[in-house]
Amino acid sequence: MAEILGCGDGTVYDKIDFIHRQCRLFVAERERRLPEMTFDRLDICTDQQTYLVNWPARRVRKQVLINGTASVECQSRYLFGPSLGHDPETTISEVEELRAAVGDDAKPEHMQTYAHYWTEARYLREAGQAGSGLTVDDQLPAQGVLIAGQYDLHGHFHFLRYLLGGAAHLNFFMDEDGSMPVACLGAFADRVATRTADIFQVSIAKDLTIDQRRAKQHDAEQRFAVDKAAHPGLADWEVRRAVAETRVATARATSPLPHRKLQDVVIDLLFPDFAEPDKKVRFTTDMDDYDDAKVARRLLRATLWPVDSVFAQMRRRLRLVERGISSPRRGRAIWHINAPYNPIMLAKVLFIFSVWHNYVGPRGTKETPAMRLGLAKGPVRMEDILYFDVRDGLRPAL
């Protein structure tokens, strides 16, 4: 970018800082309306993506891993996040001083005040252990502090709790990662108990080639042809619903559980779907109070495609997060030719992308996710974001 514009690197970073600051001001003014907005139902799919940052020094060729959690509202495609597991506003030395001041090292982890931060001592003690999220081949970032464990995931769902309080019902779709439903329940347990929120876990066949996807699609179409023949006179969507309802009833009848029979049962939804082949869904918050038809309708809505497609779009459009290049001569160490060395810059660029995705969109976009969610009346020009002034709304009309 600096080469194309004929300017120094510092100028580029200054412009990114300015754009990021303007995007934050603009989104804060728009999203502060969300808690007061009402919705009959919102379907939220959530997933995580790991970003790799280049090692800060050649003498230590270890990668820096940062988790990012993002949620997408399925109908509008509005993106919440990514929320990175990285705190840019403090340092490891400051965290160690804070821990020493409150005596965290002498306490069990669940009683510590600053247990959510990785420190050098903790890295040396826990890296490589099951559930730590770091291996001995990783290192801590030179700027900011990594968030430990699943604290970033819990924070993301509490953020959604604040923004989406006006939804009459929330359906959460997530993968089979065991930590994700736990974090979701941490923020929405009361709503699950009152049956105004539900959690569904989705699994699909991943890492398939195009030919393998086509084979899966062909098999699914043949199965669906048999289903259609068994339900003459029904439209395709009606056949899907009837078949799903039958599978729900069968799952209940064969479940080994005496109560909440569907919580540990994976239901096959092997309908033709090139984007999500071999889809299977678990109704994680089943309480035996929904009839089979109601469960079937919600299972059919369960999907991870909206959030996965946004992650793919990030990698296509942002060179900072494209796949790295591994070097056999250096023990398969991965170096990202376009990746930042400063994780703070990664967070800023991802936030700018989310604003572009929600409010601007590619050239020629007629309806943006923000419009579908009710946060905008039309596509927003980048100029309106760059020159946004929060004081405009406070000035009296002349």
Q: What report would you give on this structure?
A:
- The protein is 41% helix and 14% strand.
- It has helices spanning 2-5, 9-31, 92-102, 120-126, 151-163, 179-193, 210-230, 236-254, 292-301, 305-317, 343-360, 369-373, 382-386; strands at residues 42-53, 64-73, 79-84, 86-87, 145-146, 170-174, 197-203, 266-268, 280-283, 325-327, 333-335.
- It has a 7-stranded mixed β-sheet, with helices on both faces. A two-stranded antiparallel ribbon has the order 4-5.
- The longest helix has 23 residues, at 9-31.
- The chain is globular, with a radius of gyration of 23 Å.
Radius of gyration: 23 Å
User: How far apart are the first and last residues' alpha carbons, in Å?
Assistant: 42 Å
Tell me the β content: 5-15%
Please trace the helix and strand order, writing H or E for each element. Answer: HHEEEEHHEHEHEHHEEHHEEHHH
* Whole-number mean pLDDT: 85
Low-confidence parts: 325-332, 394-398
Give the helix tally: 13
Largest sheet: 7 strands, mixed
Number of DSSP E strands: 11
- Structural class by secondary-structure content: alpha+beta
Percent helix range: 40-55%
Described by the principal axes of the CA atoms, the overall outline is globular
